[in-house]
Specification:
By secondary structure, this protein is mainly α. It contains 15 helices and two strands. Bound molecules: zinc ion. The site of zinc ion has 7 residues, from loops.
Length: 347
């Protein structure tokens, strides 16, 4: 069904949400590539069952005739006799061949352009491999990420509008795909994603739902409570973020610029060591978590409460990673953290 262009697909009323979402993403991806309205050269011939009534291709796939491109030569449908010789089809297959041929004649509009027959996209090549490639899911994800322009994502557009500047595709790619490898905790990852995807109901969003509300920040009661203001810009929060910046400098040695890209969206420049990025990520996560715990309160968390939280994260991380194959980086990171903490503990 996925390979069938959306305009030709049957309507299914009781499709599961997961299938519907997958299909929607699939279509969006193909639309971006400009291939959403046509058949793919690797369109599965079996999918014709959904398009042509009383079709019988029972013997085709077992004889190796699987994809649309196998039916074509120089943009023309191969005559049945020639196909029969190549794939040893029974005579009875001639009828199905005629049905498909006539369908294709009627629907010339959906045939791939001439240059598409010989060159498959990376995804099409992957889907036609007879042997299942190793790490298939990761390969597909990576392929999808590479092909997708983050600037088409709604939350990316919204962040850039609030920031008043654009981040590069590489920066977004780091924010979206690299950071998640740094933590094992789904709860922490969830929080980071909720901030990134702008899940929180900040005052300016509530204003749309409750007309009487002012949309002002609940802390300073002066500025509009946008996503950026509530998490970053609010002057009441500034001391906390300044302390966080100092904490990062003291533990990792990295002087991270005081910008929302780094602290709020967690863009950790790739030229820093992975140990530093790992520690910075956890420090920032702890601060974000503490801010979320003070939601709609006028008080703000202290850096000390964030440090206590980092200690908890450290405990979980060490426990979870101790069973994993040896990974020196997290050990080194927490050693750095401990060294700094021991220095600062008052006698
Ligand atoms: Zn404020």
């Amino acid at each position: 069904m996925a390979w069938t262009p959306p305009q030709l697909r049957k309507k299914y009323n009781n499709m599961s949400p997961l299938t519907a979402t997958t299909l929607r993403e699939w279509d969006r991806f193909h639309k971006e590539q400009g291939f959403d309205r046509e058949l793919s050269p690797v369109f599965l011939l079996d999918s014709f069952y959904g398009l042509i009534p009383s079709l019988n291709m029972a013997s085709w796939s077992s004889r190796g005739l699987i994809y649309l491109h196998q039916l074509f030569d120089q943009g023309e449908v191969i005559p049945f006799r020639q196909l029969q010789n190549t794939y040893h089809l029974p005579n009875a297959a001639a009828f199905a061949h005629r049905q498909i041929h006539s369908w294709l004649q009627k629907n010339k509009k959906v045939l791939p352009a001439g240059d598409r027959w010989g060159t498959f996209t990376e995804l099409e090549s992957l889907c036609t491999q007879t042997k299942r490639p190793l790490k298939l899911i990761s390969t597909l994800y990576n392929h999808h990420h590479r092909a997708l322009d983050p600037h088409t994502l709604q939350f990316v557009k919204a962040w850039e509008a609030e920031l008043g500047r654009q981040l590069t595709k590489e920066q977004w790619s780091h924010i979206l795909y690299e950071n998640k490898k740094l933590t094992l905790s789904t709860a922490h990852l969830e929080l980071a994603r909720k901030v990134l995807y702008r899940w929180y109901l900040v005052p300016t969003r509530l204003k749309h739902m409750i007309p009487k509300s002012t949309g002002l920040c609940w802390r300073c009661n002066k500025a509009q409570g946008t996503m950026l203001h509530i998490w970053w810009d609010c002057l009441v929060l500034t001391p906390l973020w300044t302390d966080t910046q100092a904490l990062i400098k003291n533990t990792t040695g990295v002087a991270l610029a005081h910008t929302p890209e780094h602290f709020l969206l967690q863009y950790m420049p790739p030229h820093h060591t992975k140990t530093s990025r790992y520690l910075m990520y956890h420090i920032i996560l702890a601060v974000l978590l503490q801010i979320s715990k003070h939601w709609q309160k006028q008080t703000t968390p202290s850096i000390q409460s964030c440090i206590t939280h980092i200690e908890t994260i450290k405990g979980y991380e060490i426990m979870a990673r101790s069973n994993n194959p040896p990974q020196k980086l997290w050990k080194k990171a927490w050693e750095k953290w401990d060294t700094y903490q021991q220095k600062t503990v008052k006698p």
